[in-house]
Amino acid sequence: MMVYLQQAFYLIVVLGLLIFIHELGHFLAAKAFGVRVEVFSLGFGARLFGFRRGPTEYRVAVIPLGGYVRMAGEMFDTVVEPEPDHFTAKPRWQRVVVYLAGPAMNVLLALVLWFGLLLGGMAVRVTDEGPPVVASVLPGSAAERAGIVPGDRIVAVDGTPLRDTGQFQELVMLSGGRELIYRVRRGSEELEIPVVPDVHPIHGVGIDGIVPRVTVTVESVVDGGPAAQAGVRPGDRLLLVGGRPVSDARSVTEVIREHAGEPVDLVVEREGRRIELVAVPRVDPDGVPRIGVTLGLPVRRVEGVADAARQTLVMAREQLLLTVRLVSGLVRMAVSPKVLSGPLEIARVTQEFASHGLFAFAYTLALISFQLGLFNLLPIPVLDGGHIVILLAEMIGRRELPRTVKERLLQVGLALILLMAILVLSLDVYKRILIESAPSGEPAQVEQPERAPATP
Questions:
Q1: pLDDT tens across 178-216, in order?
Q2: Which residue spans of the chain are classified as CATH 2.30.42.10?
Q3: Helix, strand, coil percentages for the chain (3-state, nearest 5)
Q4: What kind of fold does domain 216-296 have according to CATH?
Q5: What is the C-alpha to C-alpha distance for residues 394 and 375, in angstroms, rounded to an integer?
Q6: How many other C-beta atoms are found inside a 10 Å radius of the C-beta of residue 107?
Q7: 9 to 16, 344, 350, 403, 434: CA distances (angstroms)
Q8: What is the C-alpha to C-alpha distance for residues 282 and 260, in angstroms, rounded to an integer?
Q9: Pair 204, 137: CB distance under 8 Å
Q10: What pTM does this model have?
């Protein structure tokens, strides 16, 4: 019960804040163009308290999920001749800016949060360059069924050359249940292997069961542990363990567990130098041999304001491109609608990330804000993007669309949004049932290289 209360709290905080920021954008733009704003409400429903300043009533309402702005002379105002400070009396380009200001504020909030987090020390993942190499293949997975084996280098998918592991994983994620052609380099041969990624039962993303080879680094070292005694330091890159090349964190764990109480040779890279060390794994109270390190992937921290600004734009670009590809896949029915998240999933994910600290919560808030801004730009009547498209059509045609046409468009848009809301809420409930009915809270997922699977 406490978890549900926490999730409800975070849902109110997140959606309330983000929708308020969105409406604040509309409010500021309307005021800048001299539009009379009659109500600026924090929350929905019955008025709790407030005050009036000039023509605007500022109020706090009973339902704390966002807010709204009511402008004089909006699209279907009954006034025949709009007054000079009415919204519809303003030039169309100004009305476009007013509609655009809401999503822009959400995007701006995301950029500001990311920028602040980077300056505050948030680490940035350093991606291994080049086509991914298969470290291991999960038993029973799509890749195993297709004949992919460890050591294969995947150079292209469906004719698209691969520049890094992240690009490969995104292509797989957006292709669940659809056949992909992997161009594989195996020794001196180059093969084309068809693979049909499975669809994750909860999240709807494609999973092929490939664990790519990645650079493994030491995130932390336990004081007094075998690794510390051997001279291992945080930031070291593991090259060899027990004479075997390190392909992922699992490969390190396997070697350590085979050598309980026996010396294990370690070769690490530190500041460009190769260093040979020896550690003797100890068996912990659970009977598991460990050397006392936490493993992760290479990261870096930004160097100054300019670097933080550049990295912020890189993150925004990546999210924008991913969203465009995701929406395109949904429209073409090439991506499962299970990838969508509604309020229940937002509450669960936000509460989970908030449990990891302020940085994780702020990053999640930025991500949701960015996605909310992009969602509102979709060309669906009722959404800001739909209103903008109508105004642009009038600007190009140099005439007003008939009122009845606008009404029908908004009715269609409202129906689409309602259907989408029903679908997303239904999927949220479905996911919640599956997650809570699983023995460990959630079905096992394919390991992602962004996280080390073990702490040897």
A1: 999 999 999 999 999 999 999 998 889 999 999 898 889
A2: 134-211, 216-296
A3: 45, 25, 30
A4: Pdz3 Domain (2.30.42)
A5: 23
A6: 22
A7: 10, 12, 10, 41, 23
A8: 6
A9: no
A10: 0.84
